[in-house]
Amino acid sequence: MIPYLLGSFWYNETSMPHSPDHHDIHYPFPHGLIRRLRRLRFGPNWLRAGGVALVVILVALLRGGWQLVVALVAAGVSALLYALHVEPTRPRLERRDLFFPNLPPGLEGLRIGHLSDLHIGHRYATQNTRWAVAAMLREQPDLLVITGDLVSYAENIADLPDLLRPLHAPLGVFAVPGNHDRWEGLEEIITALEPIGIEFLLNTQRRLVWRGTELTLAGVDDAWNGRMDLAAALADTPQNQFSILLCHLPDMLEAAAARGVDLQLSGHTHGGHVYLPWLGSLVLPRHGWRYSIGHARYAHTQIYVSRGLGGLPLRLGCRPEATMLTLRCQPFTSSLTT
């Protein structure tokens, strides 16, 4: 955890363009580091990981002496270098079937391409986004969605049209903003992307028809900055019509479930940047504590949380991701193929 905080702070202070906003990464050390700590959650997974590391070090001292401790430290440094320079450059296409007992037969097989957290402006983000766009062109989804944080810095808004212009789908390409989009200039992002066919859903919805069956696609504005209005986004949804909600912050799931949403697509967490077997996501932001990565369910509502394509270039067990989701009409379960 300490290498993550110090390394990410150093990276942002020395390698990234700065814009005049209120992000904690623009505060001088140590104040910026303290603000970063306040935005993270050190929950049970982090405590378990710290406990395991402490036990390993103590056993190494007792059984192998300082030589073994040095070897463990060297392995840790190697893992950190891998997490900084290798894994962030290796995006993965996830293909997942989602099963719904209430899915109308006409929507069986509907394929949704899901991109999130492009974070253009961070290292590796542009190359990962180009890879994801090419992957979506190969996969040819019926519907394409982007769940926020398209940029990390205002000066990179101008890069978005050329990167995303190739995206297309029969039912359309839709997006919602994330917290970074609001911070850096959402109006400018919308102005840049609407001419190339990407429509933003800001507390509103669209009725889509696929193979003669109608569904509702709703999207909400950024909840981090208090602009989300879930009631407005879902106000006109017909009863018993299958509904999909685009919401950057995954922890809005329970509110979405209370309003009858069938599927929520989100991002924001980057999967926790560090994901360890049996321990899960270790480093999570506000509004991403309960549903941090992949597929989950609350009541009758399912959610898929993308690991995203960009963000701070530190990932371990948590490769960048583009996602293909296929809707299936069967009792609740899920399957994952790659």
Automatic annotation (TrEMBL):
Q: Show where the Calcineurin-like phosphoesterase domain sits.
A: 110-271
- Record's keyword annotation contains Membrane: yes
Q: Which GO terms describe its molecular function?
A: metal ion binding; UDP-2,3-diacylglucosamine hydrolase activity
Give the source's domain of life in one word: Bacteria
Q: What InterPro entries does the record tag this protein with? A: Calcineurin-like_PHP (IPR004843), Metallo-depent_PP-like (IPR029052), Metallophosphoesterase_sf (IPR051158)
List the keywords (alphabetical): Hydrolase, Membrane, Metal-binding, Transmembrane, Transmembrane helix
The reply to whether Hydrolase figures as a keyword in the UniProt entry is: yes
Which GO biological process entries does UniProt record here? lipid A biosynthetic process
The UniProt entry, under Pfam families, shows:
Metallophos (PF00149)
- Gene3D superfamilies, alphabetized: 3.60.21.10
Membrane-traversing stretches: 45-62, 68-86
Single GO cellular component annotation?
A: membrane
- Entry protein name: Metallophosphoesterase
The species is Oscillochloris trichoides DG-6
State the organism's lineage: Bacteria, Bacillati, Chloroflexota, Chloroflexia, Chloroflexales
